Amino acid sequence: MDYSKVLRNNNKIVSRTGGQRQGPQYTSDLSLRFVLSGSERYDIGRRHLSIYPDSFLILNRGTQYSTDTDLDQQVQSFAINFDQQFLQDFKDCWTFDHDSLLDKGNGNGKVQPEFNETIYPFAGDIKYNVFHLKQHLDDGMQDEMLINEYLHHTLINYFHIYNDEICKKAEKLDFLNQGTRVEILRRLNLAKEFLYSNYNQNISLEDLAEHACLSVNHLLRTFKQAFGLTPHQFLIQLRLKRSLMLLKDTRYPVNEVVGMVGFECPSSFIRLFRTHYKITPLKYRQSA
Amino acid sequence: MKLKYIPVYTADFEEQINFYTQKLGFRITGTMTFYEGRESTVIRSDKLNVALLVTNNDSNSDKSNIIINTADCLNDYHALRTAGVFFCKSPAYLPAGLAAEFLDPAGNKFMLLEERNYNEQ
């Protein structure tokens, strides 16, 4: 369903079906971009990011971007833009809650999350909340109090994801300096989003390292430290996870799915799939 | 066999029944006597598919803990709050899902729980 809803507090929700190219534009507020079916490409400077239903993108206020989709794809996208004031109120109450537990009266000392503009996993609570919200809006619900309740919770969920994906992963890096950890993790996220966006291509380690502005050795070592997997293992898991979506939601034959998610050989795909999920792709499709 | 009634005790019978019927959408379906000299009122909610047995008890020492399953915790939390139910815990995330809690006038605790599967592939 297509609609664009601006709430009285200037939070904005946009739902769009069907792909269309949108030329360069600026985000006016912090924006969360979801794709519920198909995929959508975002071009931000030199970065080309593809969003699938298992991931979402954060865009900061003032980021220039353009979007595009494949012509033959049915794309359903959903975007939430948070008004500055709403976001500030949320941050104040969030930091207040957490400061009061740690360090009374020193609200300024707390480092507020910088919104790292990258791709995050779309799963768990944020997914439940966004789907509930979208269902209500599709049904024509108008109660802004309730809509804002969902938006408030979406921010809570995002802060938790940020904590898991950025803060906790930076902690795992073996560097003494906090600044170094944050910078390395930022570059590792460039590598991760490159994998998310090009998972079905042949990706060489050199390409990946260049995209992340790290040397190959450095990338291999730090990627494993932060994410617990080598880039290759991460890529295989991502391909397998996306093959689940294709097996469940489309009718492409298994042999075609193999190529669509970037595997070359059906037998190795089936072997990996079976090892990972303890079921064959065909049986998974039949049971899904 | 099936689970049929959940007993709740109250010192202020009137207030308790009003809370259940006006705010939670229960209706009175009859009375029953379980113990000598003490009558209980049966109230039913078709939406929740449950019957409560409200019994007057001046000492009011027995409290019940009732967990209501919901498909959308934030939505029902909002609807109940609009109807005037005061929540002692606003929606928060548990390992089992999203849950909010309110008390009835006699202090019985109701949890509104939306179970969520976090191991989805």
Automatic annotation (TrEMBL), chain B:
InterPro entries: Glyas_Bleomycin-R_OHBP_Dase, Glyas_Fos-R_dOase_dom, VOC_core. Residues 2-115 form the VOC domain. It comes from Mucilaginibacter rubeus. It comes from the Bacteria. PROSITE patterns: VOC. This is VOC domain-containing protein. Pfam families: Glyoxalase.
